[in-house]
Amino acid sequence: MAAWGERLAGVRGVLLDISGVLYDSGADGGVPIAGSVEAVARLKQSRLKVRFCTNESQKSRGDLVRLLQQFGFDISVDEVTAPVSAACQILRERGLRPHLLIHDGIRPEFDEIDTSNPNCVVIADAGESFSYQNLNKAFQVLMELENPVLISLGKGRYYKETSGLMLDVGAYMKALEYACGVEAEVVGKPSPEFFKSVLREMGVEAHQALMIGDDIVGDVGGAQRCGMRGLQVRTGKFRPSDEQHPEVKADGYVDNLAEAVDLLLLHADQ
Amino acid sequence: MAAWGERLAGVRGVLLDISGVLYDSGADGGVPIAGSVEAVARLKQSRLKVRFCTNESQKSRGDLVRLLQQFGFDISVDEVTAPVSAACQILRERGLRPHLLIHDGIRPEFDEIDTSNPNCVVIADAGESFSYQNLNKAFQVLMELENPVLISLGKGRYYKETSGLMLDVGAYMKALEYACGVEAEVVGKPSPEFFKSVLREMGVEAHQALMIGDDIVGDVGGAQRCGMRGLQVRTGKFRPSDEQHPEVKADGYVDNLAEAVDLLLLHADQ
To answer: What is the residue extent of each domain of chain A?
Structure first.
């Protein structure tokens, strides 16, 4: 593999995944990943542009940012791109009235969306709310529709909590796709529209941008398909087998965000 | 389409699906489908061989047969082929110790199977037991295994209860397949091994056998792939779009089992 200097040359903007990179979530709120608070601070003091890019769909951006601030992270709501606002925009543009299979934590984000007489289903990381009854209800709504529309906030397979690996929305999206014979529209990583909106917000071109995440497919692969570079951290849901992934080869693997920032501050376009 | 006489010529054995053909299940026990009790009786009085072939995995064969007998069906346990016994045989042959994601109704069938220190997951139609916590536990067991083995009792998308369409085991199988990056081994319809075991039990060749079911893919398509013929009934989970299914074309569509038996008694090899 080329030297780090070559791999990071010309980077002007950095997209940071949150869960598994900044902190590990958990029923107790979670814990910051060692070195990440300082790493974010150093990155933001550099000339690199920084944006947080998450598929978090259990918490509102406000709740997530408040939690991260409590851990000491230098982060504000308008630096975070999350799929729920993109989803609401799609619903409004297309006159869709969703049946919501979501966590109560993000329900307020849909307060101004008409959910009467649903003509689509929106699924997010509902956690414990993924009961048989709730998934079955979403299934029944889709089966009643002549043109079933399923919108999924991300399609992650799993994420890591302090207590272990946890099923993410993608697994339930696949269950509904199979049961109803539909294909979901994914909002959030790895959808190209989502990455492109982050690049617009940063004002950098794809070839000048680097995504840092713990998901080899959703973060690294998704960013690479948009012409960006992608680093995988060995924290969060990282598994050693990711380094031999059959489809995705990261532009680099680092132990954690702190190592990624060390390398960036040494080698990226300053 | 050819005349019924041609389509049913040479049939010597009939495989009957149970749920959606004999009765519709439900929280209250369910209801027999009109005409099916008499149809089974007439079929069994004919020279045709009859066998019941179900993917039922919420109830033991004994409980299912007792329920059907209460509705008036002429049926006994040894006439029913269900996936649970095939699954137990596989577990024993391969020294597999399952983590069970199943309905309490069939738990006793696994009484003699070693479930300590699991090295595989068996998933069946667990109904309300498909909680987030239970699915996540099965996921975590698979992720801990070096060679994850997932055995699924059927892969149905949904079935019909008296209260409406209900998600079947296939949806949850797909969720685990996606989350863990594994492919499940399906025991039960439409696995060819399952159909072949029924043919052996009946003592008829595939080309002499007719499957009657409400599932265009699992019953009709599965039987046809084994060289059998398949009729779909317009009861149970049947939907009008099934008659234009992109992949499976039944050898005939009938309103219900009673009509199928009328036609068989007129045209099949007597």
So the answer is: 2-81+189-267, 83-186
